[in-house]
Structure formats: structure tokens, C-alpha cells
């Protein structure tokens, strides 16, 4: 069972205590300001959940999302990843998008992640259930 933590137009943060993990979901086009606001709230929630549970994982569900700006992709890879890790996040799953333009964004994000050599353990999955299964295994 998940609990809603936060929502914006086109996005939400939910918490699944069984893993434990935060699930960031995007649907349709999300304005840059809203995207970053949700990401910043995600950092707050990571710190809270690590304090409560001793650990937390993250899933970004891009299944129904639409294109993100190049600036937001770069910001997420350079700023958010680093801050998520320093807040206590280690395991990060991304559910791949159906939209081909968002898939290009994801490719750019993954390349920036590889080049930065940041320590987040990041894997791609076809659906949320597969991501949850992986996280349950690595979070034991």
C-alpha cells in the first residue's frame, strides 16, 4: 500500500513502506517549475524517510510522461542526483517511458549519470512492479 506524500499538476510522490521507497510519477507534460518543485520535495522526503526507516529507495515512473527540457534533464543529473545521494539515497529505479521523446531525455540523463560517476545505483525497468521487486531484493 502506498501513501501520497506530495502532488503537482502531472506528478506525485508516493511512499511504499514495504520496500521502503518513494515513487515519483509523472504523467503528461510537467512545467519546469513544477518538476523542480517536486524534485526538491523529494529530497526533503528522502531525508525524512531515511530518519524514520534507516534507508529509502527511489522509483521514477516515466511511463506516461512527456518530454522534459534539456535544462531539467541536466539539472536532475547534476544537482538532484548528488543531493539525493547525500540525503541518504543509494538505490534508484527508473521505469522507462512510452513516449519516444521522453526516452531520448532518459538516454541523455543516463549518459550524464555515467559521465558524472555519481555513486547512485541506477537501473531501468519496464514497469513499476519490476522496479519494486529489484528494490525489495537490494534493500533487505
Structure write-up:
- This protein is α/β, with parallel strands linked by helices and 140 residues long.
- The protein has a single domain, classed as Transcription Regulator spoIIAA (2-Layer Sandwich).
- Helices cover 48% and strands 29% of the residues.
- The protein contains four helices and six strands.
- The protein is globular, with a radius of gyration of 14 Å.
- The protein starts with a strand and ends with a helix.
Would you spell out the secondary-structure blueprint of this structure?
Blueprint: E1 2-8, E2 11-16, E3 21-28, H1 32-53, E4 57-65, H2 70-86, E5 91-95, H3 100-116, E6 121-125, H4 128-138
Parallel strand pairs: 3-4, 4-5, 5-6
Antiparallel strand pairs: 1-2, 2-3
The mean pLDDT is: 96
Biggest β-sheet: count, sense, barrel?
6 strands, mixed
> Which segments are poorly predicted (pLDDT under 50) over 5 or more consecutive residues?
none
Which architecture per CATH?
2-Layer Sandwich
List keywords for this structure.
140 residues, Transcription Regulator spoIIAA, 6-stranded mixed beta sheet
Amino acid at each position: 500500500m502506498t501513501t501520497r506524500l506530495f502532488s503537482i499538476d502531472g506528478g506525485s510522490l508516493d511512499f511504499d513502506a514495504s520496500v521502503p521507497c518513494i515513487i515519483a510519477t509523472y504523467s503528461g507534460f510537467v512545467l519546469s517549475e513544477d518538476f523542480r518543485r517536486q524534485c526538491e520535495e523529494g529530497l526533503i522526503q528522502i531525508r525524512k524517510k531515511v530518519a524514520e526507516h534507516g534507508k529509502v529507495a527511489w522509483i521514477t515512473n516515466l511511463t506516461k510522461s512527456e518530454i522534459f527540457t534539456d535544462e531539467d534533464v541536466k539539472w536532475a543529473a547534476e544537482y538532484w542526483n548528488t543531493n539525493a545521494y547525500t540525503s541518504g539515497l543509494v538505490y534508484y529505479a527508473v521505469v522507462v517511458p512510452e513516449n519516444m521523446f521522453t526516452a531520448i531525455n532518459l538516454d541523455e540523463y543516463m549518459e550524464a549519470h555515467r559521465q558524472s560517476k555519481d555513486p547512485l545505483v541506477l537501473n531501468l525497468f519496464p514497469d513499476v512492479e519490476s522496479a519494486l521487486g529489484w528494490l525489495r531484493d537490494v534493500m533487505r
